[in-house]
Amino acid sequence: RTGDPFLAPPSFYFPSDDALFQQNLDFMTGPYILAAPIAEPDMRERTVRLPPGWWYDPASSTWHRGQQGIRAAAPLDRIPVFIREGSIIPRGPVIQHTREQASEFDLDVYPGADTAFSLYDDDGLSMDYTRGTFARTQFTLTHGLAGITLAARRSGGMTPPRRTWSVTVHRIQEQPRAITLNGRPAAGWTFDSRTRQIRGKLEGDGSDFTLVVRP
Asked: Rounded distance, CA 184 to CA 14, Å?
């Protein structure tokens, strides 16, 4: 819809940071995920130049300020990856073709900046999407006096299949005063003081919802 490439150098999204134009290996999958691959044998760490903003290292559960170089571990089983603040990242299981309909998904939310993410669905088989038979779910993340709000609004002429979303909200500094779902206390949602994360599940057919984390 936008014409942006699936993979792009960091300078594509942050052209004002001149230092990023010197990075020949790093790439981004969209504006929120930075990968820093290893291109030399026996290298087990490397310096990574982070773009502006704050970036999360899932391997060490550490936040780093951008526009600086940091040393990142690079063991044989993974490459360094960093997540930008303000990200909404859905993850699903590996599927072999579009006929497969997965039902279990993860949704990782990284507060820090207001943002939005659009999730698209169609039947994976026909051309009916050209006639409006598709679903687009717009996730939004906003910050205000009431706390952190994650909302979803669905549009289109198709009802998505039922799904279970395992939601993790990162970067929560202290026990929230309340967690509400559609204006009511959210049952089963927990706060982990060690990882600074809130976790819970959402189930349904993609209907609208509003989740609020009140400090």
From this structure: 40
Structure tokens at 123: 């039947």
pLDDT digits (tens, 9 = 90+) for 105-119: 999 999 999 999 999
- Token code pair at residue 125: 């088989």
- Whole-number Å distance between alpha carbons of 83 and 62: 10
Q: What pLDDT is stored for residue 170 in this prediction?
A: 94
DSSP code, position 171: -
Chain-centroid distance of CA 160 in Å reads 20
Amino acid at residue number 126: S
Which H/E stretch holds residue 34?
A: strand 33-35
| Of the candidates 85, 89, 88, the residue with the CA atom closest to the CA atom of residue 66 | 85
Query: Average pLDDT in the 202-208 region?
Result: 77
CA diameter of the chain: 54
CB 25 within 8 A of CB 36: yes
Query: Residue holding tokens 């207001």?
Result: 114
Cβ–Cβ under 8 Å, residues 28 and 14: no
Model confidence over 123-151: pLDDT tens digits? 888 999 999 899 999 999 999 988 999 99
